[in-house]
Amino acid sequence: MDRSDLRPLVFDVLRKTPQTHFRAVENDVRRAADDYERRDVLALNEVLWELLVQGVLAPGKNSLNPDLPFVHVTEYGARCLEDGEVVPHDPDRYVERMIAKTDGAASPVVVESAREGLLSFLAGRHAAAVVLLAHAAESLLDALTDALIASGRRTGRGTKQLASSRGTFARQSRAVRRALLRWDPPAEVASEAETHLAGLEALVRLVRSDEGSPRTPFVNRDATLAHFLLFPDRCRFVYHATDWLAGKPDA
Predict the structure, then answer these.
(1) What is the pLDDT of residue 141?
(2) Which residues are within 8 A (CB) of 121 and not within 5 positions of it... i.e. 6 or more apart?
(3) d(Cα 74, Cα 171) in Å, to the nearest integer?
(4) What's the pLDDT score for residue 87?
(5) Confidence (pLDDT) at 137
(6) 186: Cα separation from own chain's centroid
(7) Are strands 19-21 and 57-59 parallel, antiparallel or unpaired?
């Protein structure tokens, strides 16, 4: 079995038994998966070690068994498991969900920047993760700017401010927000515009000044995780808005 197949099974086991040990997890996974083979124990151990590195698990089960191979779900891990939001700890499912939310429209730059950012997050490199995810957010803002300009030229709306706003993040963000809301979008776009545009802007502001100069973000694990959890819906909003601007009938 691949690690991507094993992770959801491991998560289910940990929800039911948050204090356990490696072999007990393996026994539960073996019972739950018809196609589990003895050689899959190595891939399973890799999944468990990843969760240890990421802080979802920590060594020890109780005072009598404080060391590996005994493990327990941490407070952080329990929040992830309780909320059902372990997807960022499963890179394959995260990317699949993001692509599905955009009906396959997410660009390679957005997909690969988010993927590499998530892998950095899982390695504990939170600043690097945010830089990469912000790169994906900038690509989304550029796509929305392009769609607004193309729609404006087609419908006779002014696009001068949008075209001249590129290169200065704060100006571009303001120009996109004004144009999108001024052009009478459908209710489902209008109702989410402020939330998702503000979220993309907040993400980019972590890594760029208003003038566009790069800066190093200072973020903790929880703040970084929150940005990753929200990002697929940011993508869905942007591509839905660009479909509307392009005049697609289902948008």
Answers:
(1) 94
(2) 88, 129, 221, 224, 225, 228
(3) 43
(4) 60
(5) 96
(6) 26
(7) unpaired
Mean pLDDT by 10 residues, the chain (251 residues): 87 93 94 91 91 87 90 86 65 86 94 93 91 96 94 83 83 89 88 92 91 88 87 94 82 48
CA distance 16 to 33: 16
The Cα–Cα gap between 59 and 72 comes to 6
> CB of 153 within 8 A of CB of 247?
no
Res 159: pLDDT: 82
With 0-12 / 13-18 / 19 or more C-beta atoms within 10 angstroms meaning exposed / middle / buried, residue 150 is middle
CATH no. for 3-84? 1.10.10.10
DSSP string, the chain: --HHHHHHHHHHHHHH-SEEEHHHHHHHHHHH-TT--GGGHHHHHHHHHHHHHHTSEEE-SBTTB-STTEEEE-HHHHHHHHHT--GGGSHHHHHHHHHHHTTT---HHHHHHHHHHHHHHHTT-HHHHHHHHHHHHHHHHHHHHHHHHHHHHHHT---HHHHHTTT-HHHHHHHHHHHHHHT---HHHHHHHHHHHHHHHHHHHTTB-TT--B------HHHHHHHHHHHHHHHHHHHHHHHHHTT-TT-
